[in-house]
Amino acid sequence: MSQILFALPFLAFTLIAAKDPPPPPPKAPVSLTAPAEVAADPANKWTLELSNGGKVVIQLRPDLAPQHVYRIQLLTTQGFYNGLAFHRVISGFMAQGGDPKGTGEGGSTLPDLTAEFNDLPHMRGVASMARAEQENSANSQFFIMLAPTFKLDHHYTAFGRVIEGMNAVDGIAVGEPPEQPTRIVRATIGGPLPAPPVVVATAPAPEAAPPANAPAEPAAVPAATPAAETPSPAPVAEAPAPATAEPADAAPQPPADASVQEGPQPQ
């Protein structure tokens, strides 16, 4: 009898150990407010003085997209954005700029960036990088959301949010391209250029087919090419496209049936 009783604790331990481990805790949502240390660095404030007389201040988020933020900061200190137009502006969707060609096909001479898709939602006032159909093709073009479009989440790299001057963004001339485009008179950051972020080397992953709701598919994600019947929003090809490629081939465009939800708005 004593032998049987002695074995029972071990049996109970085995049963407990065989149970499935508890699921990981749910991921905390990304805050629209930058962490204190990010907000405290003046270099993370990106100011755009516009030809419509407005001034826009964007809180950059290197905690979410370090390489993309550094690219914005670097090009800004080089004067790259000064004089460039918002060449594609869709009312109730987004305002896109940062292309020296003004066609949606241009970019800087720097190499394209590896995507840093993150959980910052594409709400009104969020700034994100335009790209071509290939995910790792963002370069210098960016867009500012005029209204929430969450189907862009995890397909475009959001890198900041307007914290001042959203009324100036609302005043950017509409069109594709606009008849008299609004231009960036001067772009500045609030402090000296930071050191470039450290790139962690990772083994190359096999290229996966684009998800069913990728930007190239109008049904799920804002479609790529501007459609006459459906307003196309979108961040378009960043890097100079090959001569055979269509300019706005992978630009996101709002789905025809998408309803715009209002969220917290920048001041």
What does this structure look like?
With 267 residues, this protein is α+β, with helices and mostly antiparallel strands. The chain has a domain of 147 residues: Cyclophilin-like (Cyclophilin), CATH 2.40.100.10. It is 15% helix and 16% strand. It is built from 4 helices and 8 strands. An 8-stranded antiparallel beta sheet has the order 3-4-6-5-7-2-1-8. The relative contact order is 0.20. The N terminus and C terminus are likely disordered.
Outline the secondary-structure elements.
Elements: H1 2-18, H2 36-40, E1 45-50, E2 55-60, H3 66-77, E3 86-90, E4 94-97, E5 126-129, E6 142-145, E7 158-164, H4 166-170, E8 184-189
Antiparallel strand pairs: 1-2, 1-8, 2-7, 3-4, 4-6, 5-6, 5-7
